[in-house]
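Internal tracking record. Fields below are filled automatically when a chain is submitted to the structure queue. Please do not edit lines marked as system-generated. If the sequence contains nonstandard residues, flag them in the REMARKS field before resubmitting.
Queue: standard
Priority: normal
Entity type: single polypeptide chain
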Amino acid sequence: MTDLTLTDRGEQQARDQGSMLRGHRFAMVLCSPRLRARRTSALAGYPDPAIDEEAVEWDYGGYEGITTKQIIEMRGGEPWDVWHNGVIPGATPGETPEQVQARAQRVIDKCTDCLRQGEDVLLVAHGHFLRMLAVTWAGLPIEAGAILRLETGSVCELGYEHDRQAILRWNCPPDPRVDFS
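SYSTEM-GENERATED OUTPUT FOLLOWS
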């Protein structure tokens, strides 16, 4: 499993996230065990998150560490995305979309009590996993994750709209003028 540190740009994005979230109280802070997630959490002002093994990035199996363009070339030019086509076995067997969704649901389940009490939870994790978490939260089909673009360093908010689980904000660049209360 690839476990990279943050780039200089990533470190600045994490500090920017911290500026945006400063002063906001979270009843629970969960974080992937990967280096870049833990560093992001610390730089954003949350140095002691609960490490959640379930919040790791998708296991890409034989596609680990290679780009979408390279995968398409390996497939003879046939279009590919992880949401519709899955992965192939490699050093690890990889995960199906359904397996990643099951992990996302377990993370959501850990947060449910806090959320039902009107408290907020912060999750620091990875792109494809967070996209799966969002579609799982909102009750959307797995494939809907393919259309949820998520830039590194962005902030998202899941919550409720008239007592229904909803995606409230998505792919927002850190902006300290935005009120997340």
